[in-house]
Please model this.
Amino acid sequence: MEKIILTDQKVIGDLIPKKFSKLGMIWTGILVVFCLLGVFAYYRQLKYGLIVTSMRDYASWGIYISNFVFFVAISLVGSLITAVLRLSGVHWSTPLTRIAEIIAVSAITFASLIIIVDMGRPDRFYFLFLYGRLQSPIIWDVIVISTYFIISILLLYIPLLPDLSILLAHKERKGIYKFYSFLGSFWQGTHMQFRISKRAINILCIAIVPVAFCIHTVTSWLFATTYRPGWDSTNFGAYFIAGAFLAGAGAVNVAMFLFRKYYRLENYITQEHFDKMGKITVMLGMIYLYFNVNEFLTPYFKMKKPEEAFLNSLFIGAFAPLFWSVIFGGIIIPMIVLLFKKGRRPLPMFICGILIVVGAWFKRYLIVTPTLLQPFLPMHNVPESYKHYFPSWEEWAIAGGSLAGAMLVITIFARFFPIIPIQETLIENHEKAHHQ
Amino acid sequence: MDTNNTSRKAFLASIVTTGLALAGCSSKKNPFEEAAGEHAKASGDTVKLLSVDGQVIEVDKAFLRPVPESPVISNIEARMGIPGKKFVMVIDLARCKNLRFCEKACNHAHSLHTDLNWLKVYPMEEAEHTAPYWQPTMCMHCDEPPCVKVCPVDATFKRQDGLVLIDSDRCIGCRFCMAACPYSTRVFNWEKPDTLTTEQVCQPYSCETSVPQKVGTVGKCDFCPDMARKDELPHCVSACPNGVYFFGDLNEDSVTNGAETFRFSDLIKDKAGYRLMDDLGTKPSVYYLPPVARNFPYEQGVENEKEKS
Model:
């Protein structure tokens, strides 16, 4: 642990949100351009129908759905960093909680948006509430995702309250000040308020763990409740959750590196944080690898007829290059690198994080599409374009736009709110000073 | 999920799409409007007709009205089904040579998009040294339909007469049912059906005729319950010159292809009828008779396949 004790003024000065530098402006600009491109592509999709995608009757779900699964997976990190570590009495993760929570909120928001994009009739979205049938796993997903969204928002908001009052004390009384005061002027920092907020956070942390398990388990059931080879698996819920934790940890590794670099937070996100997150990532990688072996080895051993064509398409067929790249590049190689102490330094951690997140995105694609291209009855009597799937530019633009949008939300949040909890850092500093 | 945000989005989207849907549709157009009452004047031209009680009567031509082909079935009735019926189909694989008249008749009757077929004839061969045969497939109208289980909005439903139908005015286009169906029988209207007439576009959708198909929704074989209401056979059955398809009612224990009528239970017993992928537990309503003592060699179907493509 860093032994330097920082003064309160320094902490507040370091952590208070600052205006974008030139680099920040360029970054935000690029994200906005990608978002606008996605919006334009979606406008075309609304106008002409889903025909602008490359999805057809066999590959009836494509990168929209895999992107949705990816977002749900990433969002699970909020519960991991905030709740699981907090409940197990770990304190080093405090500076990372807000990063994890904003990733969770932004990812789950875009998960819901992308699912509307995938709908053939987005104008009937409200039918889900008007005519929803509880026996459909989609309705389960609607229920658990909205619950998770609300808990995540609260877990982001409540710990933000003391920081808002710090912001109110240190910012000029104009523009954004009104927004801060709208959000948090009722917070006086009384003993009672701290007690209530601590209790509320504890309750939310306990509540979010089962809900987090539910969102990804139910999402896996969208696939596992069908008969299709590759999806018809009792392993699917656990397999998805393991993958989600790994993807989320990868995302946190990337985000903590970038925030540390850009906002010069070396005193707050330390070498030690990278080291510990690296160890956690290795553990999550091992768990995910275990579930992958589980998922593929036993059907490969038996080679039931419907599974055979599917497994061959992954292992040696059209999807093999992507499949092996994901297994090695997205799981095994980062895991091996992070096993070494030198591998857990900020830069290698950042690179491994990117490998894990990109691998996770393509892994979702490999879960969704190859299965659909292996129907029980042969593909017959359809136009040639129905037999393959490669996303159209509109699909890439929309998927890319949604990813850019999620990052934009995180960027803008960091522009207006402290990305490292100020109040909690101050308290920990005081405690440390007390011990010395 | 951010419901506030998303419902506003849905609302905006609804403006866009309803705008699209309305374009080209003039206000409620009644096809019988011109012949309607008050404006008709006697033309002096008469025609002889047979009245309901068997008398020959003479009527002025100007007063003739076309009678709608079948009574309008409300959405609630269409969702209930025909009481006392349990529809089944029997497909005799020994008689099929991949003529695909069935497919053509079906596509025409339902004005399907040119890329889509509800009825497909598959070239099947179980394993390397087994006999190939032609297998027509359609919706199996399962008694444990996986598609109905997963539908989030009750757009696809099971009726008391055994049919699984789709309400295209309800379908949100999530395509979960397509992933759930092991028979790959469901198709999606990726774009507006290119074969619809203006009149069809404007007519209200009926779950029993499945017309008009709508962009962004799922479609599939409906066993033609509108024909059953008229005591007629589904289009595929009457279009097949080889009598491959037998349609009927399990409660009456009879099936017919138009020319021949069999006791259903005898037919299944005598010819060892079976159902497709019965091991999945879907309990299909379509039965197959194995391709033994065939009327045509398999190769004849291959020639038909080449001609079609």
Observations:
- The CA atoms of residues 30 and 203 of chain B lie 9 Å apart.
- Chain B touches chain A through 58 residues (CB under 8 Å).
